[in-house]
Specification:
This protein is mainly α. It folds into two domains: 1-100, no CATH class; 134-284, no CATH class. It contains nine helices and no strands. The model is unreliable at 1-14 and 111-125 (pLDDT under 50). It comes from Candidatus Kentrum sp. FW. Residues 94-124 are annotated as: Disordered. This is SMODS and SLOG-associating 2TM effector domain-containing protein. Keywords: Membrane, Transmembrane, Transmembrane helix. The chain crosses the membrane at residues 171-195, 201-219.
């Protein structure tokens, strides 16, 4: 028995380590995506100014690569510490949603376009700017909208919370009903003396049904489909709201404000996802 407990303990520890490693990789993947998105928004003037010439584009890319290496040293190379910031119990300690600085070192959000002294009147209609904003909407807004729509719909049991919830609810309810019916049959058999209802097979099936219901409950606690569905639904609504603001905005600053709203929603969704998965346990 002690050996069995030792093996089970080590197996649980191994699973916990693998889950944390997976969470760190997921955090890094999402952070890199958000860094590139935020870097574009924080350097709109530089991008518009650099776009007309190959030399300007090359210089911008070189600067972006240099800034990414700084981000990598501060964030990617300290994945464990960054994950702990999300899993910390104090909700006020949640990491700031904007971690890309602009040319002035400000990390509070998108740079104000007029800060570029080379900006000319009418640059809001610049083709490079329009291409940039259109690309942002198609890649980031649409990409995240597709992500939420995909996981809110039906799909593989292993990855889609809606499918998980539907199947677990159905079979969980069925197992509970079967358990109640079998136990009722046993009680009737004992009270009325019907030997068929008191047969050991009926007792065994009642226990099996109860264990089945308990197992489904364990799976539900581990997969957390309801929590993920709520999170994804809220995130989907926030994406739609921010995208409408972006599309309806006529001034660049209003579009950047919509982008800031979108980035904050993305940060909240990632934060809730990490905490939900970290707290999930398959425990009897």
């Amino acid at each position: 028995m002690p050996k069995t407990c030792f093996v089970i303990g080590w197996a649980g520890l191994g699973i916990s380590r693998r889950k944390r490693d997976w969470l760190e990789k997921r955090l890094m993947c999402e952070s890199i995506r958000r860094w590139h998105s935020q870097y574009i928004c924080s350097h709109v003037p530089e991008i518009v100014e650099a776009a007309p010439t190959p030399e300007g584009v090359g210089k911008y890319i070189e600067q972006r690569e240099s800034d990414f290496q700084i981000f990598k040293r501060q964030f990617i190379d300290n994945a464990g510490a960054r994950l702990n910031e999300h899993l910390f119990d104090d909700r006020k300690a949640r990491p700031k949603p904007w971690f890309t600085s602009n040319t002035s070192g400000d990390t509070s959000g998108p740079i104000k376009f007029p800060a570029n002294q080379n900006r000319r009147e009418g640059d809001d209609d610049n083709s490079a700017l329009q291409q940039l904003l259109s690309a942002y909407e198609n890649i980031w807004f649409q990409g995240q909208a597709d992500y939420t729509a995909y996981y809110l719909g039906e799909g593989p049991l292993a990855s889609h919370p809606s499918t998980q919830k539907r199947i677990l609810d159905r079979y969980g309810f069925s197992m509970v009903i079967v358990t109640l019916v079998l136990h009722a049959a046993i009680v009737i058999g004992v009270c009325s003396g019907i030997s068929e209802l008191k047969h050991p097979f009926v007792h065994v099936m009642a226990v099996v049904a109860a264990l089945g219901a308990l197992s489904i409950r364990v799976l539900e606690d581990g997969l957390q489909p309801s929590a993920h569905l709520v999170r994804l639904s809220v995130y989907n609504e926030e994406i739609d709201s921010a995208r409408r603001l972006f599309q309806e905005a006529t001034e660049l600053q209003d579009k950047l404000r919509a982008i800031r709203t979108f980035e904050e929603a993305s940060s909240r969704d990632l934060h809730e996802f990490l905490r939900t998965v970290a707290k999930a346990r398959y425990v009897l």
